[in-house]
Prior knowledge:
Blueprint (H helix, E strand, L loop, with lengths): L26 H11 L1 H13 L4 H12 L3 E5 L6 H11 L4 E5 L6 H5 E6 L4 E6 L6 E5 L6 H13 L1 E4 L2 E4 L5 E6 L12 H4 L2 E6 L5 H13 L10 H13 L4 H15 L13 E3 L3 H17 L7 H12 L4 E2 L1 H5 L4 H11 L4
Parallel strand pairs: 1-8, 1-9, 2-5, 5-8
Antiparallel strand pairs: 3-4, 6-7, 10-11
Helix pairs in contact: 2-4, 3-11, 9-11, 10-11, 11-12, 12-14
Amino acid sequence: MEEEIRTNIPTQEDPVNTGSSTSNVDIKALNEKIQKESAFVDLLTMEMNKVIIGQKHMTERLLIGLLSNGHVLLEGVPGLAKTLAITTLSKTVDAKFSRVQFTPDLLPADVVGTMIYNQKKEAFTVKKGPIFANFVLADEINRAPAKVQSALLEAMQERQVTIGVETFKLPEPFLVLATQNPVEQEGTYPLPEAQVDRFMLKVVLDYPKKEEEKLIIRNSIHGFPTPNAVIKPEDITKARAVVKEVYMDEKIEQYIVDIVDATRNPENYNLEHYKNLITFGGSPRASINLALASKAYAFIKRRGYVIPEDVRAICHDVLRHRIGLSYEAEAENISSEEIINGILNSVEIP
């Protein structure tokens, strides 16, 4: 049943097709600015490629999360360099990194911190947890119970943590990069929809190609090179402000809204057969994240404007975890990927 996505979309050299009015935006000047400000993307990618062989899709998505201030969930079988990719990214940025291995006996205090009694001062003092870092790797996030998973909710959404009666702001930039293994279900706790929705992107990884795997073997035997720190946290904050300046025409905004609306009301887009396959569609957070991720994707491609191809390229990663599948869909072995393909083929491209 899986369909191919049509590719009759505007080219990167055709910004006029992205919308109707660019009178208030100097596309040429914006393009030049983006070309200049996005130069570090090549440096980051080059440093990551020293260690991560293949997996270009994953590397690109990690950069999109970094540039659009969104958390990333990586899903794949063991051994696909999920943890290695995240630790490598943290090394290329001169920032604080912490890793939390999620286990069934983990407590919320082990993640966010707790109050400790100080005998000398005869008072309680706050001991901050590993969440107080720029990059937080939540390894095998689905191995911890709901109590621990919910401890991340405030941190991920509000960018702050409450310990006792005090509330502490988390450092900027702050990014939660989580991994989970979809195969092993014993001793795991599936993430609730409320938490999954807080991840901007859910990236599904596949096995490397044969040629890539040969290089992986060689590097493993001879030792992986150490990536260098090429940017500072303030460079990321500056880049995020520039990403928001990437031009998005009203027609592209409408395209994003139509795609997300099709997950809620498929019958309005000649997709009546999807009505019984979807229990719930994307929330407004899906629309916001799709717009932000599309801008970040255009930035990575060194372009100052968003085209429909950007939206389509990032759409699966933004929507795959935001579509609820019915029992009927599961019985027919229909995945959210197939539904997204059908929506992209049905919604009119501007």
